[in-house]
Amino acid sequence: MDYSANLAMTLPEIVLSLGAIVLMLVSAWGGSASTKMVSWTAVAVLAGAGISLMGPASYGGLAFGGLYRADAFAAFAKVLIYIATAVSIVIAPRFFQKTAGDDLRPEYPVLMLLSAAGMGIMVSAGDMLTLYVGLELQSLAAYVLASFMRRDGRSAEAGLKYFVLGALASGILLYGISLVYGFSGTTLFSGIAQAYAGTHSLGLLFGLVFVFAGLAFKISAVPFHMWTPDVYEGAPTPVTAFFASAPKVAAMALAVRVAVEAMGPATDEWRQIVIFAALASIILGAVGAIGQTNVKRLLAYSSINNVGYALVGLAAGTQEGVSSVLMYLVIYIAMTLGSFLVVLQMRGEDGQPIETIASLSGLSRTRPALAAALAIFMFSLAGIPPLFGFYAKFAVFNAAIGAGLFPLAVIGYVASVIGAYYYLRVVKTMYFDDPAPAFAPMESRVEGGLIAVAAVFVSPLGYLAIPVLAGWTMVAARALF
């Protein structure tokens, strides 16, 4: 295959990289005055990267000798990543303008584009080294984003914690990759799969464990979840919304690709790790959220809880299981972004953000539309029918049962009752408690429109999209097998 064909397969990442470089130069010359233009141009760059996925080259298979894979699975994940990243850019200006007068700087959308490029490389990785390069590109941008509000102590603390723990996880992952390479003789996923299909050595088993431990940190699965509540609480809310959506999709898609493509013959070995991480994340995410008083920390534990449910689909190790994971991620993105968009509306009369759950008291009487939207998101996250979040859980449990993992599905279903408690507590606070001081009125029609779109999607009307999503996710899953 010639070099131009290889470059055509990587067109989305080329668009994002060139766009980020050009906008970096524009921001250097234009300064803070160019922020609005740079932000909207970054959204256009993301749209261009998404459009480039429609070409036949995006499904062309292996590029650069197997280092990069362009297929339907990667294209599906990239669409979700670009949507979540674009939303995180759009909602940022008003937040930074209102919070302590800290105007948004043009470096923010540039970092978002670089992170999106890294995530694109992650989900298209066909080699352990490509995997690591993409993951580090995404992570380095994320460390800066977490501490973007330099004058805020919590933001600086969040960035430092994320950096230190992220470096530890990267070391664990790199050690696992070195073990896999040492005992298989290759870093290509296809070659690693052949090694696992042969006689299993203890070194390959240890490599598998360390690789999955490193990936567990990136998806904030138990027991590598410790950074999530602190980073989510301390980071600026638009950045927290980004962390809870796009990188989560990228890391989960990467874990699925590694499990199926590189370590598919060792399914029985990695399935035990995935089942433990799934159940531990579901239970700890639910129990840990019960005592929270900060809504961003509650959503952090909700994120851990939802990762556990997605891992139930991965544990199945089948096409149906991978399809259910992708379906879950689509619905999870809508629920999570919608919830954080509501959090952005939680501001006092002075314009400063309020993050306590108690401040939601009586919201149904002061801001009925906002309360209704948040109630939809909470019920959907809890998996209560007929909202679309119920179908997400149904899909992963059905895939687990189809793979013979009936006990896992039963335990996960029972544990979901624990999680329902803290979601319903938020609804109870909004609808039955005495009203707290009213929030400032909504000033952004864009944010209001995004909340409405997300609420409609996770409502029972979302079931109308099942035929399209089911077909698309199955095509994407089939690309891995």
UniProtKB/TrEMBL annotation:
<feature type="transmembrane region" description="Helical">
    <location>
        <begin position="369"/>
        <end position="388"/>
    </location>
</feature>
<feature type="transmembrane region" description="Helical">
    <location>
        <begin position="6"/>
        <end position="26"/>
    </location>
</feature>
<feature type="transmembrane region" description="Helical">
    <location>
        <begin position="298"/>
        <end position="319"/>
    </location>
</feature>
<keyword id="KW-0560">Oxidoreductase</keyword>
<keyword id="KW-1003">Cell membrane</keyword>
<keyword id="KW-0830">Ubiquinone</keyword>
<comment type="subunit">
    <text>NDH-1 is composed of 14 different subunits. Subunits NuoA, H, J, K, L, M, N constitute the membrane sector of the complex.</text>
</comment>
<feature type="transmembrane region" description="Helical">
    <location>
        <begin position="79"/>
        <end position="96"/>
    </location>
</feature>
<feature type="transmembrane region" description="Helical">
    <location>
        <begin position="204"/>
        <end position="227"/>
    </location>
</feature>
<dbReference type="GO" id="GO:0048038">
    <property type="term" value="F:quinone binding"/>
</dbReference>
<dbReference type="InterPro" id="IPR010096">
    <property type="entry name" value="NADH-Q_OxRdtase_suN/2"/>
</dbReference>
<feature type="transmembrane region" description="Helical">
    <location>
        <begin position="162"/>
        <end position="184"/>
    </location>
</feature>
<feature type="domain" description="NADH:quinone oxidoreductase/Mrp antiporter transmembrane">
    <location>
        <begin position="125"/>
        <end position="419"/>
    </location>
</feature>
<keyword id="KW-0472">Membrane</keyword>
<feature type="transmembrane region" description="Helical">
    <location>
        <begin position="239"/>
        <end position="260"/>
    </location>
</feature>
<dbReference type="Pfam" id="PF00361">
    <property type="entry name" value="Proton_antipo_M"/>
</dbReference>
<dbReference type="InterPro" id="IPR001750">
    <property type="entry name" value="ND/Mrp_TM"/>
</dbReference>
<dbReference type="GO" id="GO:0012505">
    <property type="term" value="C:endomembrane system"/>
</dbReference>
<feature type="transmembrane region" description="Helical">
    <location>
        <begin position="108"/>
        <end position="125"/>
    </location>
</feature>
<feature type="transmembrane region" description="Helical">
    <location>
        <begin position="325"/>
        <end position="344"/>
    </location>
</feature>
<feature type="transmembrane region" description="Helical">
    <location>
        <begin position="450"/>
        <end position="475"/>
    </location>
</feature>
<protein>
    <recommendedName>
        <fullName>NADH-quinone oxidoreductase subunit N</fullName>
        <ecNumber>7.1.1.-</ecNumber>
    </recommendedName>
</protein>
<feature type="transmembrane region" description="Helical">
    <location>
        <begin position="272"/>
        <end position="291"/>
    </location>
</feature>
<keyword id="KW-0520">NAD</keyword>
<keyword id="KW-1278">Translocase</keyword>
<dbReference type="GO" id="GO:0050136">
    <property type="term" value="F:NADH dehydrogenase (quinone) (non-electrogenic) activity"/>
</dbReference>
<comment type="function">
    <text>NDH-1 shuttles electrons from NADH, via FMN and iron-sulfur (Fe-S) centers, to quinones in the respiratory chain. The immediate electron acceptor for the enzyme in this species is believed to be ubiquinone. Couples the redox reaction to proton translocation (for every two electrons transferred, four hydrogen ions are translocated across the cytoplasmic membrane), and thus conserves the redox energy in a proton gradient.</text>
</comment>
<keyword id="KW-0812">Transmembrane</keyword>
<keyword id="KW-1133">Transmembrane helix</keyword>
<dbReference type="GO" id="GO:0008137">
    <property type="term" value="F:NADH dehydrogenase (ubiquinone) activity"/>
</dbReference>
<dbReference type="GO" id="GO:0005886">
    <property type="term" value="C:plasma membrane"/>
</dbReference>
<keyword id="KW-0874">Quinone</keyword>
<feature type="transmembrane region" description="Helical">
    <location>
        <begin position="38"/>
        <end position="59"/>
    </location>
</feature>
<dbReference type="GO" id="GO:0042773">
    <property type="term" value="P:ATP synthesis coupled electron transport"/>
</dbReference>
<comment type="similarity">
    <text>Belongs to the complex I subunit 2 family.</text>
</comment>
<keyword id="KW-0813">Transport</keyword>
<feature type="transmembrane region" description="Helical">
    <location>
        <begin position="394"/>
        <end position="424"/>
    </location>
</feature>
